[in-house]
């Protein structure tokens, strides 16, 4: 019996195809500038600004390199604090939450919601299916919530929104899938996971005992992940007939 559908976020619900590296670098520079303005406004006049930017970039790169090996999730708040400390920011200002508030994360230029997402989420909700988000973001979930809310779909996920930065592990680590199943209160066999990455989403979900659906995009993750999804879709509309085949009658009176 279908109880829950879990979704990856980026390139599954949110379309990043319009995003460019230049866009990211411009936005990131503005965010770091806001953090630096916070430090300076609080009297951190001896801070080495150039060192802060360099330390943040280098530490972010290193954190992701290590994460892809050990699956320990990076956390942007921790990286900001470490970079600031290395640049001479006084310890009294090294509060991750306050630094992240100054960082002022929001929807990234060039990203949009896939157009079919609200319709499909509405159908699942009306059928009584629990839905959740499980993302490998290095931002705490309260930051990604800002984007989700801006795109008008936060209301569909009142209870289950999980970021790797909060759990401490990246997909495909079993811990983040265990946390997601606990969050939606469903057994693996009653749960479907939809994502765009063969290794993180498909292999991870299958190892946890869930049905897996690959959303095909321009970026498919590791093609040698050794995972074969239970279903492949190009649009979330195509998820619905898969659910019909696997869980007869799941739509109930909403059909």
Provide an overview of this structure.
The chain is α/β, with parallel strands linked by helices and 255 residues long. The protein has two domains: 4-17 and 110-254, Rossmann fold, CATH 3.40.50.1000; 21-103, no CATH class. Helix content is 45%, strand content 12%. Strands 5-4-1-6-7-8 form a six-stranded parallel β-sheet, sandwiched between helices. The chain has a two-stranded antiparallel ribbon with strand order 2-3. Strand 4 (130-135), helix 6 (141-150) and strand 5 (161-163) form a beta-alpha-beta unit. Helix 2 (49-70) packs across helix 3 and helix 3 (76-86) packs across helix 4 (96-103).
Task: Summarize this structure briefly.
With 255 residues, the protein is an alpha/beta fold. The protein has helices at residues 21-41, 49-70, 76-86, 96-103, 117-126, 141-150, 164-167, 174-184, 198-207, 239-246; strands spanning 4-7, 14-15, 112-113, 130-135, 161-163, 191-195, 211-215, 231-233.
CATH superfamily of the largest domain, called what?
HAD superfamily/HAD-like
| Approximate helicity band | 40-55%
Strand order of the largest sheet: 5-4-1-6-7-8
Q: What is the fold-level CATH name, i.e. the topology of the largest domain?
A: Rossmann fold
Structural class: alpha/beta
| Domain module count | 2
Q: Given the structure, what is the number of helices?
A: 10
CATH architecture of the largest domain, by name, is: 3-Layer(aba) Sandwich
* Average residue pLDDT: 94
Q: Would you list the SSEs in sequence order as H and E?
A: EEHHHHEHEHEHHEHEEH
* Main pleated sheet: 6 strands, parallel
């Amino acid at each position: 019996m279908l109880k829950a559908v879990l979704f990856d976020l980026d390139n599954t619900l949110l379309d990043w195809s319009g995003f460019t590296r230049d866009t990211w670098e411009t936005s990131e520079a503005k965010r770091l500038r806001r953090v630096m303005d916070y430090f300076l406004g609080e009297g951190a006049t001896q801070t080495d600004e150039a060192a802060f930017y360099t330390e943040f970039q280098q530490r972010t790169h290193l954190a992701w390199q290590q994460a892809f090996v050990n699956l320990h999730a990076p956390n942007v708040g921790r990286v900001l604090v470490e970079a600031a400390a290395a640049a001479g920011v006084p310890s009294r200002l090294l509060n991750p939450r306050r630094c992240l508030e100054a960082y002022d994360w929001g929807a990234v230029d060039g990203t949009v919601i896939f157009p079919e997402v609200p319709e499909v989420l509405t159908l699942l909700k009306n059928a009584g299916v629990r839905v959740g988000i499980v993302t490998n973001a290095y931002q705490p979930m309260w930051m990604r919530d800002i984007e989700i809310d801006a795109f008008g779909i936060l209301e569909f996920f009142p209870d289950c929104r999980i970021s790797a930065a909060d759990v401490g592990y990246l997909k495909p680590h079993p811990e983040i899938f265990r946390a997601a199943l606990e969050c939606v209160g469903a057994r693996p066999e009653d749960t479907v996971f939809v994502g765009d990455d063969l290794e993180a989403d498909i292999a991870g979900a299958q190892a946890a005992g869930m049905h897996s659906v690959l959303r095909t995009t321009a970026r498919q993750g590791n093609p040698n992940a050794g995972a074969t999804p239970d279903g492949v879709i190009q649009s979330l509309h195509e998820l619905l007939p898969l659910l019909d085949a696997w869980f007869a009658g799941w739509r109930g009176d909403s059909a």
